[in-house]
Amino acid sequence: MYPAPFEYLRPATIDEAIALLVTHGEDAKILAGGHSLIPAMKLRLAQPRYIVDIGRIRGMSHIRETAGRIVVGAMATHDAIERSALLREKCPLLPETAGHIGDVQVRNKGTIGGSLAHADPAGDWPAAVLALDADIELAGPRGRRTVKADGFFVDLLTTATAPDEVLVEIRVPITSAKVAYEKTEQKASGFAIAGVAVVVEQGGVRVGVTGVAAKAYRAKAVERALAGQSAPTAEGIARAAALAAERVEALGDIHASPEYRLHLAEVNTARALRRAYGN
Amino acid sequence: MSIPVRITINGTLRQFDLDPRMLLVHLLRDACTLTGTHVGCETGICGACTVLLDGSAVKSCTMFAVQADGAEVTTIEGLAKNGDLHPVQQGFWERHGLQCGYCTPGMIMTSVQLLSRNAKPSREEIAHGLAGNLCRCTGYSHIIDAVQYAAGMGGAR
């Protein structure tokens, strides 16, 4: 399986990468870790004329604490996130989610920025960044801008990123350990059939759901049902979880029917809530 | 348009002019005749093509060879030193960690990384660490035995 021919471009800086995207427009595709793009190119589902490999740009794979926030470079690998001592202490949802992605070889190469920009409806990161209310930073010819995770995912494989923009950084809050990611995965690929990330904060909870619909989403009906409660009862959690897919049009495929995905959304929401609240 | 690339393969610096769409596994097998690295599913699932890239296990069918420019690649052929099998190879030999052998090079390369990060893994940790390598013969039990044997012999080396 060989991809269609393409021209290979390897910028040394983010500005160079943006200039290449401006020049080549929709004919160009960014190559990060390659674990979404290369399989698609091998199947010739994607046939970009220009590949812009951002793998050699320095300063894009940092994981650090800045001004009370956690900042993760777009090129940080799933493996680096999974094993980060800083994240285990200050944002444990990220390492927990990373450990659910693919397998160790995939985690060694795949990146958080690449995964988010690809916006696979069954990817794991979208649930986590939604539950963390992450800021996603994009760099383009008009400068930099920040998009909230809640507005980042537009549709199936479609994000708010413009064709001439590079996803450069993800910023998330420092959290307590009251977080959880619960997932039912497709056995061969490891992708989520329904994955639910939960972050409990003082006075509220955020819930991100992936795998169920064409795009990952915040389960705001669940969040509203639990607002203001620091220790909901098991019954309260069950009632809230039943709202996990309210007004959601579920996907159906050979792995799971829409009805089954809706069921799993509720089950995994309840599990994640129980664990995050320590109930 | 070909791209000049320098890759250290099993300790030897090699230079190539590559069509950028060439996958790393094809460079290793076709240009370098290192056919120990196998092509299995071609979709990034089975792990038969696993090699070490700067010490990290990667699937060489899901990587362009140009991405390895400047890196060190280790394949199954690079593990034995002066005719002595690597402890993980010895473990697969002693504990019958293979039947048909197709998955074995990838299993061994992933196991080397596993032991380099965790010198004394539990059976569960080994199973989790090898989740990206499929074997259709053994039922995995002897593979886990093999990795534990290697851990007892000094592991990653």
Overall description:
The complex is a heterodimer of chains A (about 280) and B (about 160). Chain A is α+β, with helices and mostly antiparallel strands and about 280 residues long. Chain A is built from twelve helices and 14 strands. Chain A has three domains: about 5-55, Uridine Diphospho-n-acetylenolpyruvylglucosamine Reductase, domain 2; about 65-175, Uridine Diphospho-n-acetylenolpyruvylglucosamine Reductase, domain 3, CATH 3.30.465; about 180-275, CO dehydrogenase flavoprotein, C-terminal domain (Enolase-like, domain 1, 2-Layer Sandwich). In chain A, helix 10 packs antiparallel against helix 11. The longest helix of chain A has 20 residues, at about 260-275. A five-stranded mixed sheet of chain B has the order 2-1-5-3-4, covered by helices on one side. The mean pLDDT of chain B is about 95. Classes of the chains: A alpha+beta (about 280), B alpha+beta (about 160).
Short description:
Chain A contains 12 helices and 14 strands. Chain A has 279 residues and is an alpha+beta fold.
Structure summary, number of beta strands of chain A? 14
Uncertain stretches of 5 or more adjacent residues of chain A = none
Mean pLDDT of chain B: 96
Report the top-level CATH class of the largest domain in chain A: Alpha Beta
Gross geometry of chain B: globular
User: What series of H and E elements makes up the topology of chain A?
Assistant: EHEHEEEHHHHHHEEHEEEEEEEHHH
Q: Please state roughly what percent of the residues of chain A sit in beta strands, choosing from under 5%, 5-15%, 15-25%, 25-35%, 35-45% or over 45%.
A: 25-35%
Approximately how much helix is present in the residues of chain B?
25-40%
Q: Into how many domains do the coordinates of chain B divide?
A: 2
* Spatial shape of chain A: globular
Would you count the extended β strands of chain B for me? 5
- Proportion of strand residues of chain B: 15-25%
